[in-house]
Amino acid sequence: MKHKIYIVHRAEIIRKGIFSILKKRFNFEIIQLEKVDDLSGLEVLSDFKILFFLETDALKDVSAFYKIRNTNIVRIVGLSSDNSLQPIGIYDDVCPVYTSGSRMIRKVADFFENENEAVLEHEGEELSTREKEVLKLVALGNSNKIIADKLFISVHTVISHRKNITEKLGIKSISGLTVYAIINQVIDTENINPEDLI
After folding, report:
1. DSSP state of 177
2. 3-state secondary structure of 2
3. Who has the most CB within 10 Å: 45, 115, 124, 160?
C-alpha cells in the first residue's frame, strides 16, 4: 500500500512549516496545496493510505473525500486556529495550527503505525504509547512473538517498534531497557523476573 500526505492550507508558512517537520521524519510523498480546489485526481487513487491536513475553514465540498474513502484508507485532520474545536463532519481529528512538532509527528506516526519502515530518524523523541507498551513487555522478558500476540500486532511491527525504541533511547541491551523502564516507571519492579535479565 502506498502512502501520501496532503497539507492544504492557504498560509504558506503553515504549509511549509508542517512539511519541514514531517519531511525530516517520514519517507512519504508529502504534497503542499494552497486550497482544496487544487486537489485533483483523488477519484482515481486506489489502495493508498492517505493522511490529509486540511484547513478547517476552507473545506466546502466534501463529496470527493467521501468517495476516496471507498478505495483507500483515509484520515482527515482539520488544521484549526481554534484550540477548542472538536472533530465533526468529515474530520477524524482536529489539530491546532500552533501545535508542537512532536504532536504533529505523533499524529502521522499513529496513522501509519504499521508502516514503520517509512519512518526515519527518531533520536531524542519521546516514546509513543505503543512503544511504551512494547518496552514494558520487552523489559519483562517477552519474546517478539509473545509481544506480537499480546498486542495483536505482527512480529514485524514489534521489531520496528523495538528498533525505534533503541534509536530514541540509545539503549541496545534488554537489561539497559529494563533499567530505563524501571527508572521511568514504565514497569513495576515486582513484575520483573531476574532470570530474564541474564
Report:
1. H
2. strand
3. 160
How many CB atoms lie under 10 A from the CB of residue 44? Answer: 8
pTM of the model: 0.56
SS3 state of residue 4: strand
Q: What is the pLDDT of residues 149-195, one digit of tens each?
A: 999 888 888 888 898 888 887 777 787 787 777 777 788 767 666 66
- Cell triple for 94: 482536529
Are 28 and 116 spatial neighbours (Cβ–Cβ below 8 Å)?
no
Which stretch of DSSP H or E encloses residue 50?
strand 48-55
6 in Cβ contact with 31 (< 8 Å): yes
Q: Rounded to 5, what percent of the chain is helix, strand, coil?
A: 45, 15, 40
Asked whether 97 and 14 are in contact (CB, 8 A), the reply is yes
